[in-house]
Amino acid sequence: MKSKKKIYSRIVIHLFFVLLCLTFFIPMLYVISISLSSDAEISRFGYRLFPNNITWDAYKYIFRNTRQLIDSYKVTAITSIFGGALSVLVMTMVAYPLSRENFHFKKSISFFIFFTMLFSGGLIPTYILNTQYLGLNNNVWIYILPGLASAWYIIIIRTFFQQLPSSLVESAKIDGASEITIFAKIVMPLSTPVVATVFLMVLLAKWNDWYTTLIYIRDSKLYTLQYMLQKILREVEFIRSVTSEMSMGMNISLDQEVPTEPVRFAMVIVAAGPTLVIFPFFQKYFTKGMTIGAVKG
Asked: Which helix or strand (DSSP H or E) is residue 10 part of?
């Protein structure tokens, strides 16, 4: 009887997680299906899980300027990976002394960092600071330096550092290790879960950033992927509206000229595709700790 109950409970649990997975997978399948459909098919049949006729018109429209799109991918990838790594390095170096009990300025610096979460200078002072004083206008460093540290992530990393066994640091100091050695060879290897999580969050934020390009960038070679896709979408909507006004009273098929709806969903695939590939490599660090067994009993 007990074995049967265990089997039934396992079946119920497995069915629950299968249904849960479908709630995430089916919307993504809808996005792929619509991106491979035509406007005429969407207007006639609506959103369908599988398209009747697969067409690549939306992707052809997005990749019609391949060189510009590749440059946008490069800018986004370089600034996201390099900026994310540099940001994590800075934030961990700030969080480490704040996690130590013998750091004399711990309370004052922690309050200063927390205070920045409550108030900000606003858009205009930030723009003046970045352009006139730091010289970051129309510069690739505008994607990296202004958001180099986040008060919220520093607090999260500091809290994780505080949970590490203090005996590790004490034993390392007895052996003559310096603070830099302790930080690099003991604290950081044990903090892989929080470092990987924060790095992924920073990377996603930088990957999805288009507002910075809108305000500070004028050189098309420095456009990010998200801004480039926003620009394509605005062009599609403009062409669609102008063509519809000019074609009033004329027998013109607009769906074949500008695939408006498929382009929207194709841009989701183009923008989110690389992050979906990267995410599984970080997934294991979200639920797995690395401090278990670090201190011998």
From this structure: helix 2-35
Q: How many domains does the chain fold into?
A: 1
Q: 261 in a domain, yes or no?
A: yes
Q: What is the pLDDT of residues 3-39, one digit of tens each?
A: 777 777 888 888 888 888 888 888 888 888 888 888 7
> Which of helix, strand or coil describes residue 235?
helix
Cα–Cα distance, 223 to 212 (Å, whole number): 10
pTM reported for the whole predicted model: 0.78
- Interaxial angle between packed helices 192-207 and 151-162, expressed in degrees from 0 to 180 and rounded to the nearest 10: 170
Q: Could you tell me the CATH number of the domain that includes residue 95?
A: 1.10.3720.10
For residue 97 the two structure tokens come to 């002394």
Contacts of 148 (CB under 8 A, 6+ apart): 83, 86, 87, 90
Give 181-184 contacts, CB < 8 A, sequence gap 24+.
183/92, 183/93, 183/96
Kindly report, residue by residue over 56-93, the tens digit of the pLDDT: 888 888 888 788 888 888 999 999 999 999 999 999 99
Q: Which of 200, 199, 231 is nearest to 213 (CA)?
A: 231
DSSP string, 90-116: HHHHHHHHHT-TT-TTHHHHHHHHHHT
Kindly state whether residue 22 falls inside one of the protein's structural domains. Answer: no
What SS3 state is found at 249? coil
What percent of the chain is predicted at pLDDT more than 70?
A: 87
**Rounded CA gap, 141 and 75, in Å?**
11
Give per-residue pLDDT as tens, 256-266: 456 777 888 88
